[in-house]
Amino acid sequence: MPYPAAPVLMAGLPKILYIKQQ
């Protein structure tokens, strides 16, 4: 990845987990 992915992961993981719980 050409840029630090930490902010993306921190923003994306909760959304993924929420969708999986649906």
From TrEMBL:
Protein name, per record: Uncharacterized protein
Source organism of the structure: Medioppia subpectinata
